[in-house]
Design brief:
alpha/beta
């Protein structure tokens, strides 16, 4: 942080005080910029793209603007041509770094963006370069257990976090992150911002629009969180969407059997995939078929603590909840991907077709030589994040989860796994059971999403078979914000900047005119191998 320049605490306090009162009239004069940009933190952004950074102070708790502050790092690439305004971006998560978003995507985003907009990214609170949520990864509970995000023992996590920053854990919410964006807007001296959000960034943008509608120019929301599913149902729905996309992936590989030799039907590719996953130790995580389920079919390989519940029943104790939550976190993150490269790489391949040729080649390599998993590990690591991201993910999704858990679904999850049924069905039931947060209870109520007051309807982009944000999220977000939906075929998670001319031109037209000229687009073409 020492290489960046920062806004004064006094200036930030004045900005924060205005935010607490709510939306400021759009008739106010634009303030003088209060940010001085300089070099970025080491290893934070890609080189040779002209990225500048600054650090500002914002309130840790916006209800107490005179209280403790935290630091946020902001990146900017100045417009190279006739400047139209500023375009903020958030890549998703929650828990994904944002600082390098524009530089990392420079090769795929249309050049018109950088010509006419200052491209700005605000590192979300709690992550590295934004007062990290330091929950003392080395701390232990009284029983000697390691403190980790989602351990099921919320008190232990809170105690570890409060040791470094008292009260900070409860302040990691989408609403506060949205207010951080507005603090940066004010510090930049901008009356309005335009915004591009992907994945979780769509929800963050929607919350910003609900809180500060008069400060939004144009808003593009790509691959949308369903505002009615925050958060338990959102992650449960990922399982069904992921299964559909896997079927599409296997079918595509079968169509190219002459090149990859993994089977000339989707079923034959699937059988090769199951064999490879099992050989690598994937076990029941590889089960993607839905035969009838019965607890009477209990196999010896049923993982703890599910076997314990099948034997002794669910008691709701902290220890049992903690064990279940740790299992669930492993499952939802793609199975035992640290030990099973195929499963980790498969999860990444479902996000976007861009990975399909390289994934098929990697799977073919492993089919010939089981020890040859280098390509699989490379794909698996493509979406890796900093460890602080795991804490921020847990903090946001558990602090503001609005969907009550249903513990009775544990039984159906066990039955599905026990009979060799569809692992994704079991994962969905485990998520809906409420085990993702364990004993961690919400501390914040999600902001009601509304488009009232927006001058220009947002542009909503949604793939029909998105594996991470179900298609229903697109129409639901468009309805909530009075936005205009473009349905994109295929299942890419993130449709803008994928080399899809129809989508990219629709976004540029919207930024120029505020108009949406299409309602449907084909999926992005695959890159030439």
């Amino acid at each position: 942080m020492t290489r960046t320049l920062r806004i004064s605490r006094v200036a930030t306090a004045l900005v924060a005080a205005s935010l607490v009162a709510g939306s400021i009239s759009c008739g106010l004069a634009v303030a003088e910029p209060r940010i001085m940009f300089g070099p970025c933190p080491d290893d934070a952004v890609s080189a040779n793209h002209g990225v500048q950074c600054a650090v500002i102070d914002v309130p840790m708790n916006y209800a107490e603007p005179g209280g403790s502050t935290i630091e946020l790092t902001v990146s900017r690439i100045p417009a190279t041509g006739q400047r139209t305004g500023v375009l903020f971006a958030n890549p998703g998560g929650p828990g994904a770094d944002a600082l390098d978003y524009w530089a990392r995507g420079a090769a795929v985003f249309p050049a018109d963006l950088g010509a006419h907009y200052d491209l700005v990214a605000v590192q979300p609170r709690g992550l590295r370069w934004a007062t990290p949520l330091d929950c003392a990864a080395g701390a232990q509970t009284k029983k000697g257990e390691q403190v980790a995000p989602g351990s099921g023992n919320r008190d232990a996590i809170k105690a570890a976090c409060d040791a470094a920053h008292p009260g900070y854990l409860d302040a990691i919410t989408t609403e506060n992150t949205a207010r951080d964006l507005d603090a940066v807007r004010a510090a930049l001296g901008e009356q309005q911002i335009s915004y591009l959000g992907a994945s979780y960034g769509t929800y963050l943008g929607a919350v910003y629009a609900a809180l500060f509608p008069d400060r939004v120019g144009r808003m593009i929301l790509d691959s949308n969180v369903n505002p009615d599913w925050v958060w338990t149902e959102e992650f449960a729905q990922q399982q069904a969407a992921g299964k559909q996309r896997l079927d599409d992936l296997f079918a595509w590989i079968a169509e190219h059997s002459a090149e990859y030799h993994l089977g000339d039907t989707a079923l034959r590719v699937y059988r090769n995939w199951v064999r490879l996953a099992a050989d690598q130790g994937g076990g029941w995580y590889a089960n993607l078929t839905p035969p009838p389920a019965s607890v009477a079919d209990l196999p010896g390989a049923l993982p703890e603590p599910l076997a314990e519940i099948a034997r002794d029943g669910y008691n709701g104790g902290v220890e049992q909840v903690g064990k279940l939550q740790n299992l669930l976190r492993t499952m939802v993150s793609g199975g035992m991907s640290a030990q099973v490269p195929l499963l980790g790489a498969t999860a990444v391949a479902t996000y976007t077709r861009t990975f399909w040729p390289s994934f098929a080649r990697a799977m073919a390599d492993a089919a010939v030589d089981p020890a040859n998993v280098q390509r699989l590990r490379a794909i698996e690591g493509a979406t890796s994040t900093d460890p602080t991201g795991r804490f921020v993910f847990s903090a946001i999704t558990c602090n503001e989860n609005a969907v009550p858990g249903r513990p009775e679904l544990l039984g159906s999850a066990i039955a599905t796994i026990a009979s060799g049924g569809n692992a994704m069905d079991a994962r969905a039931d485990l998520v809906r059971s409420g085990m993702a947060c364990g004993a961690w209870k919400p501390v914040a109520k999600p902001v009601r999403i509304t488009g009232a007051g927006l001058r220009t309807p947002p542009l909503v982009l949604q793939s029909r078979y998105d594996a991470l944000t179900q298609y229903a999220g697109g129409p639901a977000m468009a309805k909530a914000l009075n936005g205009v939906l473009i349905t994109v075929e295929g299942g890419d998670h993130g449709t803008f900047g994928r080399g899809n001319p129809a989508v990219d031109e629709a976004v540029l037209t919207y930024l120029r005119t505020g108009q949406v000229t299409i309602t449907e687009a084909d999926q992005a073409p695959l890159p030439q191998s």
